[in-house]
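Researcher: Please predict.
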Amino acid sequence: MSDTAAQQQDWTWGFTDFLRWKALPGWLGGDPDLLRNYKDAWVTAHRQEIKRQSGAYYFPPELLAGVAWIEVGGDPDFIDNVAYRVRAFVQSSERALGPLTFARKPELTSMGDVSIQMRRAAETLGFTASNLNSRQWAEIARLLADEPTNLLIVARHLHQLKQVDFPNVATIGDYEIRIIGSRYNRGPDLSLAEIEQNTSYGDFIVQRRQKFRDLLKD
């Protein structure tokens, strides 16, 4: 599939898709392989952008492809927007009602096809999350809704995570992918020793590097 075809296709993972994957029996159109096939197709359709952004930040494209494969699909896409709006409403209500504890801060919402926390996206773009207003957060959400920009931000964030543990390492191998991938899931603030206690996210990518290479082939 060409880049043009990828851009033209609607990559929304909706409630019907979720039901077909998760709940419906086969005779009603259910398909337990639907999500896996969707993830494969998404990575293949966006392979040129994945390789372009990976090359710009000097890490193997399987790392970005693996993060994308893990993150796309799953919960219906609209869930993130609903969660963000609810959390933003709760935050604005706290000024009148006092602190509320049943909702997370809106900037902790993950957005984009390749899910990334809005605060991490803001930090990746050079902003201080605590200084942003609602209009600026809405703009970040809009940027993450654009697939090429989403991939650019995720790639830049992965590069920044690489700098946490491997600032002077030129060649990114399996170990580095394991740690960087796990940091994408667990955050930049933990020590390397703490990250090494649970590298399941990065392990998933390393164990499937050949699969991701195959999906990225022209």
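Model: DSSP finds 13 helices and two strands in the chain.
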